[in-house]
């Protein structure tokens, strides 16, 4: 029950861009993403600044896998971010990113955080 309420809150927050939700996402990002995704691209991962709304695999300063490059041309919408973070290798077979965010509520929070990441 609590989990369902949390998931509903997370989705509501995702739609409204809730600052509290993005703050939760910032924590998850800190623990689960920042080792590979810094403010600037590195060999570990591309920069995620401005990733929401950006074309997939479109940064010139990162060498993407053939798997993610196959998706280039599409846009990082909330739905695509959610799908990639649900199961990276399912969304883009051959991607170099090993894992995403298992829990739907945490994932929604991370996506909300990414939307504000400039
Ligand atoms: C172990 C390192 C690692 C971790 C941890 C990691 N990523 Fe990634 N991420 C990558 C790599 C490498 C790529 C490029 C993938 C490719 O080229 O196939 C990537 C790509 C991405 C992209 C696509 C960027 C673009 O320019 O198209 C997004 C979005 C993303 N990661 C989000 C996240 C989020 C959110 C987290 C935390 C929940 C996370 N990643 C955790 C390594 C990582």
From TrEMBL:
Residues 1-22 form the signal peptide. Keywords: Electron transport, Heme, Iron, Metal-binding, Signal, Transport. Residues 20-118 form the Cytochrome c domain. One of its GO terms (molecular function) is heme binding. It comes from the Bacteria. The keyword 4Fe-4S does not apply. The keyword Electron transport applies. This is C-type cytochrome. It comes from Phenylobacterium glaciei.
């Amino acid at each position: 029950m609590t989990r369902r309420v949390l998931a509903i809150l997370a989705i509501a927050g995702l739609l409204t861009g809730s600052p509290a939700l993005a703050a939760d996402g910032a924590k998850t990002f800190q623990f689960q993403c920042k080792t590979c995704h810094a403010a600037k691209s590195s060999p570990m991962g591309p920069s995620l600044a401005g990733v929401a709304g950006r074309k997939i695999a479109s940064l010139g300063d990162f060498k993407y896998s053939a798997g993610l490059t196959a998706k280039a041309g599409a846009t990082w919408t909330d739905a695509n971010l959610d799908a990639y973070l649900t199961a990276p290798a399912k969304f883009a077979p051959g991607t170099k990113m090993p894992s995403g965010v298992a829990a739907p509520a945490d994932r929604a929070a991370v996506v909300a955080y990414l939307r504000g990441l400039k």
